[in-house]
Amino acid sequence: MSEFIIGLLITLAFIWYLTFSANRLDRLHHRVETSWANLDSILQRRAALAGEIAHLNEVDPATNLLLTSAAHQARDAEISERSEAESGLSEALKLLRQESDIPELYPEIFSELDSITDRLRTAIAIHQESVTATRKRREKLIIRAFRLAGRAPLPITYPFEDDVL
């Protein structure tokens, strides 16, 4: 009788551990989705601000075309093209800062851009940490053996996250 109770307790403990592990993994996946949503909203705001900068009176037509195109591509890119579009927008904004005096003419817009860039760096760091933690958890043998990840896709980071902003 005592062997049966010990076996039952071990089985219950193992089931509890599997449930705990599955719930932890689910929370990590939710954290990745939340961090991506936050990152995406900041990227969308940056693209919108780039569009505003492109339409300032002092911006020459070539710069206007470059910025408008880059902002439009960044806002409307499919997920497979997103990294290239965001990198293009980063380069266009960097080029504008280096090659023109517009930042001195509109300090309030560019201070907002700086603020967005700082928030973007933080959001990227949070997203990368979330993805790393989730991937590390999914590599555990118990997670793989009992397929506790279910059908959730493996979270990824994008190459634009490594860009120097």
List keywords for this structure.
165 residues; mainly alpha; 6 helices; 78% helix; 0% strand; rod-shaped
Describe the structure.
Helix 1 (about 1-55) runs antiparallel to helix 2 (about 60-75) and helix 1 (about 1-55) packs antiparallel against helix 5 (about 105-140). The N and C termini lie far apart (about 65 Å). The protein has six helices and no strands. The chain has one domain (about 20-160). It has about 160 residues and is mainly α. Helices cover about 80% and strands about 0% of the residues.
As a percent range, the share of helical residues equals: over 70%
Low-confidence stretches: none
DSSP E strands, number: 0
The overall number of domains is 1
Rg of Cα set: 23 Å
Terminal Cα separation, in Å?
Answer: 67 Å
Strand content: under 5%
Strand-pairing-aware structural class: mainly alpha
Mean pLDDT: 95
Coarse shape = rod-shaped
Order of helices and strands: HHHHHH
Outline the biggest β-sheet: none
Count of helix runs: 6
Task: Reconstruct the topology from this structure.
Blueprint: H1 2-54, H2 61-76, H3 82-99, H4 102-105, H5 107-138, H6 141-145
How would you briefly describe this protein structure?
The chain is built from six helices and no strands.
